[in-house]
Every structure is written in structure tokens, then in C-alpha cells.
Amino acid sequence: MRLSEERVHVLAAGIVQQLLQAEAVVAPENENLLKQRVASWIIEDLKTEDEIDREARRILRSVSRPLEEGSEEWEIKLRQTREELAERRGYVL
Question: Could you report the per-residue pLDDT of 46-73, keeping only the tens digit for each?
């Protein structure tokens, strides 16, 4: 996961604060519960993105003509493979 759990909770608190200020949500009885739910959604989303990244890297490593990891061609193919995998899952990167 690219973000620490602490950073995710800071982001979740900021998102909840913005939603409350914009009156996009009704103030919940337990604001902390709402922050926890938002944080869990962010973590779930980041984990899905990590899974897609791992799968894309595995696919690229298994091709008949291996690419040098980190090369420009590798990065282009990795991005394309991630996008294809995300699309299959109905996930937006």
C-alpha cells in the first residue's frame, strides 16, 4: 500500500470534514464511525490497486520476450496491462 494507515486516516478525516462543511452528508451521531468507514473504503481501494499492479507485473515477467524492468518499454507495457486488468474488474485507476 502506497500510503501509511495513519495517512489514510488523516485523509479520511479531511474528506469527512469537507463533506460535512458542504452539507453533502447529514452530520452523523458518531463522526468517528464515519471517518473509520471512509478510511476502510480508501484502504480497500488501495489494496485493489496493489493487486492489479502485482498481477500486471506477474504478467509482464511471464511474456516470451522479457522486458527490462524499469525500462521505458516496461513502464509503457505495465501501464497498459494495469489499465486492461482494471477495466476487466470494472475498476478505475
Answer: 999 999 999 999 999 998 788 889 999 9
Burial 9-30 (b: 16+ CB within 10 A, else e): beebbebbeeeeeeeeeeeeee
Q: How far apart are CA 88 and CA 50, in angstroms?
A: 15
Say if residues 39 and 33 touch (Cβ distance below 8 Å): no
- Geometric angle at alpha carbon 26, from 21 and 28, rounded to 5°: 105
In a 13 Å sphere around the CA of 71, the CA atoms on its Cβ side amount to 8
Burial of 46 (0-12, 13-18, 19+ CB in 10 A): middle
Tell me how far apart the alpha carbons of residues 84 and 56 are, in angstroms, rounded to a whole number: 9
